[in-house]
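hi!! sorry for the late reply, been swamped w classes. u asked for the two structures so here they r. pasted raw, havent cleaned anything up. first the sequence of the first protein and right below it the tokens
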Amino acid sequence: MHSRFSLRPALTRLAAVAAMALAAAAPAGAADLPRVVQDPHYGDGLFYFFQDRYFTSLTTLMVSQHFERLPQHADEAEILRGGLLLSYGLHREAGRIFEQLIEKGAAPAVRDRAWFYLAKIRYQRGFVVEAQAALDRVETHLPPELDEERGLLKAYLAMARADYAGAAAALQGLPLKDGAGPYVRYNLGVALIKSGDTAGGSVWLDELGRAPATTEELRSLRDKANVALGFAALQEQRAEPARTYLERVRLSSPQANKALLGFGWAAAALDSPRLALVPWTELSQRDASDAAVLEAKIAVAYAYAELGAWGQSLQRYQEAIETFERENTALDESIAAIRAGRLVDGLMAHNPGEEMGWFWSLRELPEMPHAGHLAQVLAGHEFQEAFKNYRDLRFLENNLQDWQGKLGAFDDMLAHRRQAYAERLPKILESARHSENGQAALERRRDELAAELARVEADADAGAFGDAKQRELLARLARVRDALERAGSDPELDPARERYRLAAGVLNWQLAQDFPVRLWEAKKAFGSLGGELAEARRRGAALEQAQRDEPARFDRFGARIPELGQRIAALMPRVVALRGEQQQVVEALAAAELLRQKERLAVYTTQARFAVAQLYDHAKLKQEESHDAATK
């Protein structure tokens, strides 16, 4: 079986679906339309999500949901949370989220997408029954590209249950266009062969095995199809077609070792040991950590024996036994290194990451006694998933340790805030009550200004609103008037009196002209002053309320911090214990694969020793026959 599914597109597309999660109807492609973020806290969660910091995104969303900070994106945030939980394999929790959203009235297209992605990720996690249950809830509202993947997933689940006839039936209804077409052909061919229809399955695999391939992925799939064809033909003792199929496999392909081994056995089945020597000799010189290479070493010796080259056959068998013994020792060293923790610690050291997450992958290998043994170990899906779980537990352990330190800092912060409130708040309130800028003084000044404004309006005192220049002119005119009054009725001062009258008249006229506008502006400013004083009263009341409430709030925080400390202290041993158990699981999986190689080596060694014994018996028999002939 070959799967083209990957988890990163699944979660990314699931997050895109969140934008249309509860739309009454969604047109095709609506999931790709831009969406305006109306709640900043939702944007905060998305920011971390698109940085691949899924744990931070998840916790940020959950905190915002707890404090009800996402009124405009409540459903979108919930489906994004479900997708993030899926990314950690928490499919049951994600399933409950999707069910709740669907019950609230999700559109059929959204509902089908949610169940499809849930089924897809359950399949990736190996939960076949649960994946089938989710897939069964998908109706007929998926877009064409997802409907095609749905058919593939249905077939994969059938194969996982060993229902190859059912898988073939599901695959036969799928389109064979570009994209999933090659995978459909391959899996259909395999399903038919395993269901007993070797001829029908071979047709599909042969078509794929001869098809042009433009990418390395398709070339690898084509090689895999030809290897499957070759070994199916060998099982039916059709050696000549098997050679034809296996000849198509590239020598640089990951399938090349199997192809060379099978090609040699096909030649041997045709009673052509000399032809079998060519692929087997090439294969025997490759890395001995591959089981096909180990088998080739005794296959070469077998071919020489079939050709009657007893000496070369004996030599090859002895060389194979020495190789098997060296490889067995090397496997023991690798197993010891794995059980000593060098593999897990080395993988963690060479593949650091900020956060836990589903999409994290191994990029660098640690130094081990025999690095070639790691290829088969690390390639296993079960090992990969087990190691991701171990890494996530390590992250959680470090996260709890980090929060232990933060709680101490929060305790100090709380103590400083208690002290600040105890020392500064009473002073602020006292200043607000009794200083010249306090609330009471400001309100007295407001009342005085109100009385003055009423007087000015009643008396039409235009001079009260004069600007600085006008007030200076009024003061000068007052001084001139006083001087003229003191001078009495001197006729010589009549021109001065006339100039005073004209200047005073012009100034009073200007003030009278500006009076209505300035009176309106003064009333407007006085009105805003009332609003500001009301706000000051509200804040003063809030400060007085804080003086009463904050001590209790501090007490709640003071109780909450030790409570969280106790929870962390209780969680820490559990996480440490789980991390240790998971490390043992990871090491056991890795060691089990190498132990299986040791078992194969033991079988090959036994076969080689038995063949050597046969060769010695044959040589002794020949020697005795020669001796008897000479005696006669």
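now the second protein. again sequence first, tokens right under
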Amino acid sequence: MLKTDRLQGYFHKVIVPEYRPIPLILFAIEWQFFPDNPSVYHFMNVLLYALTCWLLFLLLCKLFDKKSLLFPFTCALLYAAHPIHTDVVNSIKGSDEIICFLFAICSILLMVKYYDSGSIRDLIIGGFFFFLCLLSKENGLTFFILIPLILYFFRALNFKKIKTIVIVLASITLTYFIIRIQVLGNLETREIYDFNNRTFFLIHDFFNREATAFYILSKYILLLIFPHPLCFDYSFNQIPMQTLKDIPALISIFAIFAMGIFAVINIQKKSLVAFAILFFLISISVVSNVFMSIGAAMGERFLYIPSLGYCMFITWLLIRVIKTNESMKNHLTLNQFISGNQYLFSVVLILVGLYSIKTFSRSKYWKDNYSLLTHDVTISDKSAQTHYCLGNALLYEKYPAATDTALKNSYNNEAISEFNKTLDIFGGFPDVYASLALCYEQKGAFQDEIKLLDSAIKYYPENVNYYTKQSFAFLQIGKAEEAIIAGEKALKINPDFQKAYTNLGYAYYATFDLEKAKTYLTKASHLDPNDASSIYTLGLVYSALKDTTNARIYLEKASKMSGGQGR
């Protein structure tokens, strides 16, 4: 896990530029003790999120130690309740975002303690947590800038200590990049065929790319202000390409630059609004696609850390508008704390109540893939990915689970509809054709399956599965010679692909080339000793060759494997 990229094993001979070993180690520990039990993963996400919110409150108390608990309490409460976090907490994969921010908060807390006390122990442990933050997700790199910025805004200036902290952070960052280059630099890379990176991949004009990126930034801000509707996917082509002639893009560029200029101008004043803006812009910079394409156009998960900047701004705005007294540092009871700020808490509780209603209503759709996809496809109806995922849920989950033939056919037809919608939006992804081909296989339309697999092969000629499935389809319509050609192509890509040997064995058996059939089926049975079908057919081949001893051995073996039901 420490020696490979995040998606090792998910794609054949493909790596992604993502080095995140800590989430993988967390998943491995969870699997070791609770295998195949997703509820444990969800529980851990909720637990880690709760821990993050608690530590965030402690950090804000530390930063605002000269004032009352009003700002830390209100800000942490708004952050904990904000519905934008449902994506990260409900999705098991979201643990990388959660632990990245969790380790970042731990690092900041200890760096602040070092800044206040000069304890080298706090500096070292704080540096270690920063390293864990980097190993959790690339977003952690922004804290190389944010940690010194936090110290500048919330503490009296001490150049010597800031310099020491910067040197420590720089050394750790350099170490991280050396490890990352060593790990990812030795692995084979190739383009991943999905919809996530198409939005910016297909925009070749630099200015149009930037206009689209800034437009997405404005959508992020609007989602923070009014988190509805929420969706798990915003990939191609849900967000239309923007140009410098489009009014929404121009407004977005103006607004973002205005925010940035205001923040820079007010840095010297140590304005809390300036800090909130800078925290948002810096933390979202690495996922904004403004500086580089990250492979995803937009995602609510990317707001998990930047949303703190928004919560700080809203807290400041509420306190300022309601004119609450922050100088009350000590409160004897909780009742005095609340009653002394009743107008503020009335507004905050209304806001938190609305956030909570949205969080609960949104979370129910994360029950399973089908629930999430059938809901979100109505929101992200122009997204190829959403339609594709719903098609897969229908094909690989609902169809196999259905026992009624009419219901199975209904799910299969719905899947075909979703895959066709996917291709209408963008037709350049091979797995869509392959999934659609399987739908037609289940309908018995093997000629259509073969044509669709031809399209899949056109876009991804190195995929061994496409040739193997095509070989099987040719066998179903009695074209053994074509099945042999497709099977041989599969073996050129992967000489140890068991299904290719099986299909070739069937094909040669169909053409009465019994010796070749025996050779390929023997190889198939060695590669997968539990494949009863290959073993059964091998028994038939030996029977045709008049080798009754081996025929009986393999046929009896196949019968035992299939519970006495023969093939």
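hope this helps!! also noticed smth abt the second:
The radius of gyration is 29 Å.
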